[in-house]
Amino acid sequence: MSNYRLASNHEYFVRDLLRDYCAVYLAVAEQHVRCRRDGNISYTVVRTLIGEAMSKGVFWRLKDTAHYLFRNEDWAVLEGSGKNYASIGRLIDWCIGYAFHECNKLREDAFQGQHYAMRLIQLARHDELTQRLAAPLKPLAGQTTESSKRELNRILHVLRAGMLLLIRFLPSASENCCLARWLATDQTRVRKAFQNLYPALIKALYGESPERMYTLAAVDFLDCGRTTEARSLLSHAKDLGCLDEDGDRLLLAMGEARIEETFS
Fold this sequence. Notes:
Elements: H1 9-38, H2 43-50, E1 51-52, E2 55-56, H3 58-70, H4 74-79, H5 82-124, H6 128-134, H7 139-169, H8 177-185, H9 187-194, H10 198-206, H11 212-223, H12 227-239, H13 245-263
Antiparallel strand pairs: 1-2
């Protein structure tokens, strides 16, 4: 088995990057579906997604994480990643930053759609005179909806492009145990976000040995002193036929240690 090491801050940030990227993408995609179905989006959801300076939402935290990772020139040297990964990282940072500021525009449109458009409808119902006077303003509600649709499309387009960049970047994180743990324990969310790109994501990380994800994940559990979770994950992987030799030996060693504890 190769030498595993405790996760560095950098590795935690890489895990957070992928985790929060999936959360943001799924939240925006849900609003896109709602907009196509109902013609509106939730201001509350978009506002929570962004947050405020003193209470940042997941999108704001994602932007900060990308800035930390890819605007810090030292990371490429530390990871031995070279100029190619550095260039890819800067593009990922650009995609996340662009999508974040586009989402701020979406928040304003969501507020106008949810409050001002509805208020205009209520005012127009007041009497015939108000209805006539409000008539020139009514098209603005539709324009706000169209603006929201365009912003949603742009955000999703940029985030999808960012996924392809992430796949090109992730070979540099092939030994990241905390990332493997998150992938192994939250596969449903990752698959839902990456969809048909999920196999490429796993291959980028683990090559022709996707089973390695479970071994690395179990190591991270053990580093945290969570032996039961590590054993359960490895047993689950073995039942699925997704346990490599290192994982099998680790599971066996844990079983032997458990027996010794029982009879000691």
